[in-house]
Amino acid sequence: MRGHCLPVKTRRGGAALRGDATPARFSFALHAKALHLNGMTTPATIAVDALVKDYGPVRAVDGISFAVRPGSTTALLGGNGAGKSTTIGMIMGLVKPTSGTVTVLGTDMARRRHDVLHRMNFESPYVDMPHRLTVRQNLTVFGMLYGVGDIRGRIVALAAALELTDLLDRPSGKLSAGQKTRVALAKALINEPEVMLLDEPTASLDPDTADWIRSHLERYRATRGATILLASHNMGEVERLCDRVIMLKQGRIEDDAAPGELVRRYGRSNLEEVFLDVARGRKEAAA
Ligand SMILES: Nc1ncnc2c1ncn2[C@@H]1O[C@H](COP(=O)(O)OP(=O)(O)OP(=O)(O)O)[C@@H](O)[C@H]1O
């Protein structure tokens, strides 16, 4: 799916093309629940419109709008406190927006999220599972919550794919950080979700394990045709996995483009330098 061009709107108000390969004729209703590409209408998998979240006096998310294309991998990038986790929480329906709407797979998450939650899943290394339950017991509980048919078979298959077989009967609280992350990924994949929301999926992993997790995610997205939205602080991860980057700063969208396009636009050599420019408020060279 890489290389498609979709017009996106930057905070500066200009439309920009992301992707570099396919010249496309398009009309794009920005922030709409459908994307119009080459005369065809594709429903957006995730549509966020004028989303705001206030925690008391703190405005964590400040009126953001974007639409995510089916089968794509999109990154939410931003410094600490930029609003990434809050945005993901609102898309999952776990955090109630102050205003604005979230639509996932055509469903308004504020009113009908139970219609669609079984088609989604979420992973964050910061969300713990009950420590005393074994890995198998935890995965069984999540399998039941998501209405998975053959839970036993699914756990065995996932354990084999994620090299968890030897850990299945260990208490979840006694695992290393890397092992916990693989279990969290198994939990996120238990229902073979069409939409995955990942909050720093490789945080605290060694480079080899992180690379292995990324490969697994790439394969899953490709074979399932899943749509992935992830928050990450790892620029290499974003450059490798994502065909689009939404840069958040203080709850707003600062920029929105393909990784390569951002690098070109800011006159930089990699995404990390772009991130530093955005974080430090430097204007891009090619503005
Ligand atoms: N439950 C909460 N109560 C009050 N304030 C909150 C709460 N959750 C987040 N915030 C605040 O909202 C803002 C955005 O936080 P959020 O966790 O969404 O950012 P983030 O981009 O995910 O940050 P990080 O990269 O550090 O994880 C921050 O100022 C944070 O302190």
TrEMBL record:
Gene3D superfamilies: P-loop containing nucleotide triphosphate hydrolases (3.40.50.300). PROSITE patterns: ABC_TRANSPORTER_1, ABC_TRANSPORTER_2. The keyword Repressor does not apply. Residues 46-275 form the ABC transporter domain. InterPro entries: AAA+_ATPase, ABC_transporter-like_ATP-bd, ABC_transporter-like_CS, ABC_transporter_ATP-binding, P-loop_NTPase. One of its GO terms (molecular function) is ATP hydrolysis activity. Keywords: ATP-binding, Nodulation, Nucleotide-binding, Transport. The keyword Nucleotide-binding applies. It holds the Pfam family ABC_tran. Belongs to the ABC transporter superfamily. PANTHER family: ABC TRANSPORTER ATP-BINDING PROTEIN, ABC TRANSPORTER ATP-BINDING PROTEIN NATA. This is ABC-2 type transport system ATP-binding protein. It comes from Phreatobacter oligotrophus. The lineage of its organism: Bacteria, Pseudomonadati, Pseudomonadota, Alphaproteobacteria, Hyphomicrobiales.
